[in-house]
Amino acid sequence: MSLPALSDIQDEYEFLDSEDRYRLLIDLGRQLEEMPEALKTDATKVRGCSASVWVYPTQLVDGRLHFLADSNAAITKGVVALVLASVQDRPAAEVAAADIEAALAPFDLSRELSSNRTQGVPNMIALVKETAERLK
Q1: Which residue among 49, 79, 82, 103 is the active-site one?
Q2: What CA–CA distance (Å, rounded) separates 104 from 80?
């Protein structure tokens, strides 16, 4: 199952109240591909998150990046999916140049979610961008 386009997620998100936004994030997290337990290691763990979050990058044959990710917290997993929806299956150079923070700004996550749930977002974004920079 692939993630919907970030613009499609945003269109739906804008019309929901806070409780339904939580549900949308949880549903989005459920749409992430299953990440094998063997990939959930210290090396793939995102630092600075209150929940456990793992992100594992792969490079597709044509140079596009594809990320596997998981979290032990449902809403956090949805936030990870939101971050990945902005870059999934795009060329490494495009991901490296992407302004992920700006792409996520319309979701105003810091207003919608507790700081515990969003504190690791900059680290997730940094990991994605560093990987892209290395692989472009």
Answers
A1: 49
A2: 11
Give residue 116's pLDDT. 63
Pick the closest to residue 24 from 79, 103, 62 (CA basis): 79
**What is the per-residue pLDDT for 18?**
85
Whole-angstrom distance, CA of residue 59 vs CA of residue 88: 11
Active site residue 31: no
pLDDT tens figures, 25-48: 999 999 999 999 999 999 999 988
Q: Please name which of 110, 109, 86, 106 lies closest in space to residue 96, comparing C-alpha atoms.
A: 86
Q: Residue 79: what pLDDT?
A: 92
Query: Where do the domains of the chain lie, and which CATH numbers do they carry?
Result: 6-135 (3.90.1010.10)
The model carries a pTM of: 0.89
